[in-house]
Amino acid sequence: MGMTIAEKIIANAAGKGVVGAGEIHTVALDYLMSNDGTTHLTIDMYQKLRHPRIADTKKLVWIVDHNVPCDSPKTAASQKKMRDFAKDHGIDFYEGDGICHQIMAEKYVSPGMMIFGADSHTCTYGALGAFGTGVGCTDYLYGMVTGTSWVMVPETLQFRLHGKLGHGATARDLILTIIGQIGANGANYKAMEFTGDGLATLSMSDRLSICNLCVEAGAKTALMETDAVTLEYLKEHGSREVKAAYTSDPDAVFAKVYEIDLDQIVPVVARPHFVDSVVPTTESKGTRINEAFLGSCNNGRIEDLRLGAEIVKGRKVAPHVRFLVVPASRDVYLEALKEGLLQTFLDAGAIVMNPNCSVCWGSCQGVIGEGEVLISTGTRNFKGRAGDKNSFVYLGSAATVAASAIKGAIAGPEDL
Amino acid sequence: MERTFSGRVWVLGDDIDTDIIMPTEYLALKSIENMKPYAFSPLRTDLAGQIQPGDILVAGKNFGCGSSREQAPEVIKALGVSAIIAKSYARIFFRNSINNGLLLIENADLPDLVQEGDTVEVEVGKEVVYQGKSYPTAPLPQNLLDILEAGGLVKAMQKLNGIKQKGEADGRDTD
Question: Candidates 3.40.50.1000, 3.40.50.10490, 3.30.450.40, 3.20.19.10; correct CATH number of B4-139?
Fold first, then answer.
């Protein structure tokens, strides 16, 4: 019987010929990524072990991205602990360089890899054909000490994409639409695999955006085939080698197959307080906003900034709106600078910030107050996620966010 | 871990996310003890103060969806909750709970039937009894049960003398 991409990666990482959904296997991990959300907790536990050791420091990548620059003495202490430990143990360490998943995509991930990240959006790496999955700090510790972990082989939902996006819709509108369709636990414990002729029309930025959000449907991981777009991206980012390029076998077993016509996708928003509360943007138009956020591991890449800048160029942000623009990494920031995009945003009245998770994480920059409304390209709109527990987050595309910032209410570029 | 116990239940809804269980703004507090009063605060401000050791949380589908923050199951454990009974769990929360020695029970029917303040009896891996009626529950895989029995993954690691050496097999997939 054939295998899915998820099964092939696990089989390879477990040193088995064939694996099937539902089986539990011990796998070797290619990378273990951790950020300042929980690394200090991992270190505390590590230091309590009787014989602490790290299986392979080359497999660890530590990235400070949640509170950058540091916002309080408490987080300063946590980050210092992380920084010192990384230095003492020779662990790859970044701070101020960008959001963890963007840095991993730019510098580390390769097709066929098995990667654990102490962050739920680790499923982003599927865009590059890798099995990325989020874990807590205790699972992380075990992986750090042994170089391995256990995984249950997930069933796969296959999404066959056809045609090409139109109607002003972006990859983010596509994945939000899918989440709205299958629900916030529609892919729980499962892998979401994307294939079909439509995949070739999507850029790596689009693919990262799609895979990133799959955890909002509960997915264990997201996966895409390795194709010309993947190889071009790897070539442009350090000429990384492909570990193994997998596609699902024709006779692989899928829990369910969805056929998606890309040209049927329209701009959508996810309304407060659930990522699967998705409606066409037209239904929420006119909702007054206080803040707009263009950034995050989902939508803070150069393509998103270009889209946003094109919309705000020559216009002004509405007087009652704070418009935060946060490039996802230092490389993205530098490119935006070079292309004059930051100038465009600043001229329009936006607040351009350093690469970090920003208000998407809701504790550092730009948190919103009681009763306030945020339109965001971030990853979540849970109650209280972006600040006060009685505030409201709408999720939309870079185009929707930029247009809304100008309009002062939820809008599309066609409304300006 | 007790194999049979009973407890008073608190009833929550579907999609209880990790930002509700432990809001971001309190994650920087010094310890889980300090975070306890704020558990579930965006949803029910008073709940954390009302939960007594041995109580059981009952919820709908997708409990624990959202971020990988381990403070979510940790704070529930610290409040003394003996088990959660839900229709389903988000997978990262599921792993994190087992790793912290917090018992999770899945049952599709019970969450719609129990009322807050009621008492249920649990026999781990077998059933939950409510008003004299048995609601069967699936047994956990042995490797997860081992972690739970040890009181969490770190304690399970300590039991294996802290670390498995490279290439060393311990005869079971507890990794």
Answer: 3.20.19.10
Flag whether residue A118 sits within 8 Å of chain B, measured between CB atoms.
yes
Chain B residues close to A49, C-beta within 8 Å: 154, 157-158, 162-163
Torsion-angle region of residue B115: left (phi > 0), alpha (psi -120 to 50) or beta? Answer: beta
- Residues of chain B numbered 101-140 and touching chain A (CB < 8 Å): none
Residues B93-122 have pLDDT tens digits of: 999 999 999 999 999 999 999 999 999 999
- Please tell me the pTM assigned to this model: 0.93
Handedness of CA A136, A141, A142, A146 (dihedral sign): positive
- Min Cα distance B130 → chain A (Å) is 27
Q: State the ipTM, two decimals.
A: 0.87
Mean of per-residue pLDDT scores for chain A? 97
How far is CA A313 from each of CA A290, A300, A376, B127, rounded to the nearest angstrom?
Answer: 20, 18, 19, 63
For residue B133, how many other CB atoms are within 10 A of its CB? 11
Using the 8-state DSSP alphabet, how is residue A240 labeled? P
Whether residue A384 and residue B23 make contact (CB cut-off 8 A), yes or no, is yes
Q: What domains are there in chain A, each with its CATH number?
A: 5-262 (3.30.499.10), 268-415 (3.30.499.10)
Show me where the domains of chain B are located.
Answer: 4-139, 141-175
Answer yes or no: do A139 and B69 touch at CB < 8 A. no
Examine the pLDDT at B161 and tell me if it is beyond 80.
no
